[in-house]
Amino acid sequence: MEGTSLYLPIVILLMQCSPSSPVTVSSNKHKVEVREFSDAVLSCMFRTERDQNPRIEWKKKGKDVSFVYFEGQFKGPFEGRASIDGATVTLQRVTQDDAGEYRCEISASLDSVKLGETNVTLKVLVPPHTPSCEIPSGAVTGSVVQLRCRDQQSIPPATYSWYKDGEQINPPRHTNATYLINARIGILEFKSVAKEDTGRYSCLASNGVGPPKMCEGKRMTIEDVNVSAVVAAVVVVCLVILICGCGGYLLHRNGFFSRHRGRSFWISQCHGASHISSQTLHRTEDTSNVNYIPPPQESTDFKHTQSFML
After folding, report:
1. Overall number of domains in the chain
2. Is the previous residue joined to 9 through a cis bond, with omega within 30 degrees of 0?
3. Residue span of the signal peptide, if any (predicted)?
4. Which of 27, 165, 218, 265 is buried most deeply by CB count within 10 Å?
């Protein structure tokens, strides 16, 4: 008994000096992926040193940090559609607005280390929507043609496959193929289309989250270039240019465009045209002789009378 009593103070002293466990916070799943409009569980587990009733807070990071759970209540858009069990939060019917990074904070005022936290990232997956397809209605043989397909809303981004007349178009197996398929951005490109490429084309978008979606098919017709029509059009244009040129030359040669001394006016009449020289008209623009009055002239009879009297 004396030996036991001798060691008892030492044991008590060691127990007091041993390090205690501070508040610790963890999560069994730091990255959560759920489909849109389903429930998301954000796990948060904690252990405290002394404080048996720590303060639990959830915050969402973004441009500004906003409260999700504070002072025992859910805040903002989470009010009425979330629940908490311990420190684990369940969000109901999540949307893209709920995606982001969340932080679980445990404050133990009685512990030596008073604060602990862990982060959980929520990614909301969106199944494919019906993609928009750009398919030309027609083209000429030998030209380059692109068909485009795009779904802006699917998460993760969709991949695309093309169909012709209901049959899937397989990616080309050799480099000198006449077409290319980019499944990531949804482009089907023909380097040089031929009449055999005529058909009804459609595009299928898929991302593994929900059922794939296909756009409505559209027919593309490939036609040969009408060489005869092109040659005929060129000939007509050349003839028009030649006629206009010859007509202008003849008019210029006949003096139609030349400047004559003085001015002439052509007045159309029923039986032709009479040419009136402007030089016979009063020049109304010469205003220097407007007030000029010619001197009176003696009549011929008066001169004859004078000579007779002499």
Report:
1. 2
2. no
3. 1-22
4. 27
Whether residue 142 sits in one domain with residue 118: no
Query: With a threshold of 0.85, does the pTM exceed it?
Result: no
What's the domain range around 71? 17-125
Number of Cβ within a 10 Å radius of residue 27:
18
Counting other chains too, the contacts that 137-140 makes at CB distance below 8 Å and 24 or more residues apart are 137/218, 137/219, 137/220, 137/221, 138/220, 138/221, 138/222, 138/223, 139/193, 139/220, 139/221, 139/222, 139/223, 140/193, 140/222, 140/223, 140/224, 140/225
| Cβ atoms of residues 146 and 156 within 8 Å | no
Residue by residue, pLDDT tens for the chain (310 residues) are: 444 454 444 444 444 444 455 678 999 999 999 999 999 999 999 988 888 889 999 999 988 899 999 999 999 999 999 999 999 999 999 999 999 999 999 998 887 777 899 999 999 999 999 999 999 999 999 999 999 999 999 999 999 999 999 999 999 988 888 999 999 999 999 999 999 999 999 999 999 999 999 999 999 999 987 555 566 677 777 777 878 777 766 776 776 655 544 444 443 443 444 444 444 444 444 444 445 455 555 444 444 444 434 3
Same domain, 144 and 113: no
Nearest Cα to Cα of residue 147 among 207, 218, 214, 223: 218
Q: Are residues 82 and 172 in the same domain?
A: no
